[in-house]
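Researcher: Here's the sequence for the chain we discussed earlier.
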Amino acid sequence: MRAILAATLLLAAACTTPPPAGGPPQPKSPAQALAQIACPHRIAEAYAWVNHMPGPGRSAREVHVDVRLVEATDTAVILKSVATTGDTLVLEIRTAPTAPIAGRVAYREPVPNPMYKRVSFFCRGGEIHSLDTIEKVY
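Model: Thanks. This is the structure I predict for it:
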């Protein structure tokens, strides 16, 4: 009973306490708070944009997602989920033995038609973060 009470108080505090300066974004719902607790990786900040500028070896339009994790030593990878829909790009963050850059994960793909409106980050089956805007870079 005490464990349930402690978990409830922790969840309530996570949903109502303002984020510390420079800390990870606060959960948008109780379900997201629980998913964050279950995930070994915490997102400090995430950005998504469409690159409209061509470059060497790159198509003219790509969707880029860049994530900085709270722990600079975290080794994780990010994979596109089969749960991706026409409106939402769903990315799964998974622990990996090594990473190209510890503490960061990135994803890119050619721009789909129609373009995504949202990016959702999942870990261990639950949404831990989301982006409701995807910037356009020219």
